[in-house]
Amino acid sequence: MRRIYKKLVLFSLLGLCLVFAAFRTSDKYFLIAKNLDIFAAFYRELNTYYVEDLPPEKLMHKGIEAMLEETDPFTDFVPEEELDELRFMATGKYGGVGTSIYTEGEWTSITDVYEGSPMAKAGVKAGDIIVSLNGKSAKNMEQDDISLMLKGNPGTSLDIVLRHPLTGVEKAYKIIRDDINVKPVSYSGVIRNDIGYIKMSQFTENSGLQVQQAFEKLKQSQPQLKGLILDLRGNPGGLLEEAVTLSNIFIDKNQLIVSTKGKVKSWDREYKTSQSAVDAQVPLVVLTSRTSASAAEIVAGAVQDLDRGVVVGQRSYGKGLVQTTRPLPYNAKLKVTTARYYTPSGRCIQAIDYSHKTEDGEAVYVADSLRRSFVTAGGRPVKDGGGIEPDAKVESMVLSQVAITLLRKQFIFDYATRYYYAHPQVKPASQFSLTDAEFNDFEKFLDGKDYSYKTRSEEALEGFRTTAEREKYYDGLSKEFDALQQKMKHDKKQDMLKNKTEIRQLLEEEIMNRYYPQLGRIEKGLSWDKDVDEAVSLLHAPAKYQALLQKKN
Fold this sequence. Notes:
By secondary structure, the chain is an alpha+beta fold. The protein has 4 domains: 1-54; 93-181, Pdz3 Domain (Roll); 185-324 and 338-396, 2-enoyl-CoA Hydratase, Chain A, domain 1, CATH 3.90.226.10; 401-455 and 490-535, no CATH class. It has 18 helices and 23 strands. Strands 3, 4, 5, 6, 7 and 8 form a 6-stranded antiparallel β-sheet that branches. Strands 10-11-12-15-16-23 form a 6-stranded mixed β-sheet, sandwiched between helices. Strands 1, 13, 14, 17 and 18 form a 5-stranded antiparallel β-sheet that branches. Helix 6 (207-221) runs parallel beside helix 7.
């Protein structure tokens, strides 16, 4: 009898737990329904009785934006009119004329013309100035507005008037928009005689296949390839499946590349390689930077965790979140974070904790003390919570303030335009270099032009002054401050000389981009790239390369 009583008590408690759980779930849905009713009633009353007319779409979008502030920046509402951006992220295609632009002052210039695009076929050149679009003056027009007018459905026409940057002659064009396909493999070739190099800019549809085709072509052109550099620097990521496909080029069949885990458990998934590798033996270096993110980090993480190659460069961005697109009424979309992804060792490399924010509403980075340790297939230690740490770290290049100013004010761009029209032919990008006389010509070109700037030291000193004034210390320090400020005054001519090598390199890259669009800038940059130098050094020293793969601190 006592056993029966105990069982009855146990079943009663179990029943109560189920009831409470049901209540908790129903309470959640009740609160959702309740607050939706309140929201709808609030809007109805506000719209009916507020003294001024309120634009409904603008008001609702404000409400959506407020909700999104509680999420991460990757979760977003995409209205129908912005679906082209979503399409571009997935496919690398958009409807337009195939050009990049930059606005400086009153006018907007063409900065790049994509190979094979409608603009290229029409003979438009980098440096040309946009005068009007469809009969509307482009003077003082916002860059975003011009960009919007350049884009459009394939087959539609654009009437554009361009001004020659040197002669000032204006010419009218009728451009028929087309599908513009931004190639995910922006450059591939053999460098330093025996090292393959592939630069990948994004993970869009079929990008993995394009990397494979580029790699196979490199092997055909150089059968004695001593290694491959896969450059993912600045790559913001894209499609997760393409990261798996790319990894499969170098990692053999049935190897785990990435797994995803989220709130909807039925969506949790493991992604493994499905084919035999194209080449599972070629020594491999993956280059990463602070702006390598998402799918780029999946590839770098898999290569590192499976000890398939080494990572060189700087710590990656740290985006370990997966987004899914959900349909909404009226062709709108919700791009929502649904899961975290994990590399083969089991680590999530998400660097920012969006669930915890400061009093100012800023999300916080995962503290180093909270980062957990994992091990690669060969037993090397790796950590979560902070992007992919390179196996061989190279300090990132920081441009001088004078170089940044010359770039921002378009003086390097403008001189490259002038150089292009003065020199009909030049050497190939890998062999081209500016002479001292040509660099002196650039300096003369700058005479009378305003490229004033503040050095970082000057900015820091001004910050110190502001703090000292606020804390009422400045009066007692003013003489010392003025003396230090006088000593720090920079001479632009001296800064030019001090940073001559850096400025010369930027000039050479921009000039080569005029003769060999997109490819020239990359190829020229390879000749002085520190990350590439380190990668080549490792691939030319097999013992050093292997030592990194076996390092266990």
